[in-house]
């Protein structure tokens, strides 16, 4: 259902953001490392969504 997808998306975004912020806060990663990781993760998700759309058709 749509509500479950939106809830899962919200939990995922909050989790990813929280982990990224705490990595910088604890001093174990640079801000640029975390931001680059977020962009790389978004790219992988976008490519997976595109590939899935083409595969289903």
Give structural notes.
- With 57 residues, the chain is mostly helical.
- The chain has one domain (2-56).
- The chain contains two helices and no strands.
- It has helices spanning 2-25, 31-56.
- Helix 1 (2-25) packs antiparallel against helix 2.
- The longest helix has 26 residues, at 31-56.
What is the string of helix and strand elements?
Answer: HH
Apparent shape:
flat
- The helix-and-strand class reads mainly alpha
Tally of alpha and pi helices: 2
In percent terms, what proportion of residues is strand? Answer: under 5%
Low-confidence stretches: none
Query: Could you describe the largest sheet, including whether it forms a barrel?
Result: none
Seen as an oligomer or otherwise, the chain set is: single chain
Radius of gyration: 14 Å
Count of discrete domains: 1
Number of strands: 0
Mean pLDDT: 96
Helicity, as a percent range = over 70%
Q: How far do the termini sit from each other?
A: 22 Å
What is the compact description of this entry?
With 57 residues, the protein is an all-alpha fold. The chain has 2 helices and no strands.
């Amino acid at each position: 259902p749509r509500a479950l997808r939106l809830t899962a998306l919200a939990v995922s975004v909050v989790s990813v953001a929280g982990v990224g912020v705490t990595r910088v806060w604890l001093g174990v990663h640079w801000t640029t490392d975390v931001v680059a990781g977020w962009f790389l993760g978004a790219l992988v998700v976008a490519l997976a969504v595109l590939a899935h759309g083409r595969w289903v058709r």
